[in-house]
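Q: A reviewer asked whether we had any structural model of the full assembly, not just the individual parts. We don't, so I'm hoping you can provide one. Inputs are below.
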Amino acid sequence: GNSVTQMEGPVTLSEEAFLTINCTYTATGYPSLFWYVQYPGEGLQLLLKATKADDKGSNKGFEATYRKETTSFHLEKGSVQVSDSAVYFCALRGGSNYKLTFGKGTLLTVNP
Amino acid sequence: GAVVSQHPSRVICKSGTSVKIECRSLDFQATTMFWYRQFPKKSLMLMATSNEGSKATYEQGVEKDKFLINHASLTLSTLTVTSAHPEDSSFYICSATEGINQPQHFGDGTRLSIL
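A: Here is a predicted structure for the entire assembly that you could use as a starting point for your response.
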């Protein structure tokens, strides 16, 4: 079956630091990959996505590249802000299945 | 665009009561809606998938008589937690999608607390 493994947090960074949150996946076929962000007390918001190999999703300074050879979709941002503090979920959707498979989430805290 | 509204955002009620949570897609037609449960500091657990006009498909281990799902229109799905007990206390989140190649858009969640 499908699965997503992302680095366990929590991750604590200073403002303007470089961020990487690792995500690897196992899936049959050619899944679509997503990063979602959850701010405290809220639902999930789609941060970025990639639907095929070598696609790069980007939004709000965050980037992730769909690497089929390493089955990875690592999230990066060059300079984090305090407002980026949230839980980040990597997810995949495989083939004809609507269902999303989520990683366990990574809590990011950015200190001023 | 692609806004999903979930209501209420928070509910506190006594054990034994039933609670209804609404999930609406405000600016698109949601052929499929999903209901998730999220435990503290944990990932989202898919409870069920509902397609407009048909019965919901429940994930293994989820009691369909406990968690009633109705998806009567392309913009509204409801989850009713029947005879709620303290162990049902959780954060419930819905999502909606226009179709198979479209992303899921999430509501802001409902914090359910059963006393």
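A: Points you may want to mention in the reply: The interface with chain B takes residues 34, 36, 41-46, 49, 51, 89, 96, 98-100, 102-105, 107 of chain A (CB under 8 Å). Chain A has a mean pLDDT of 93.
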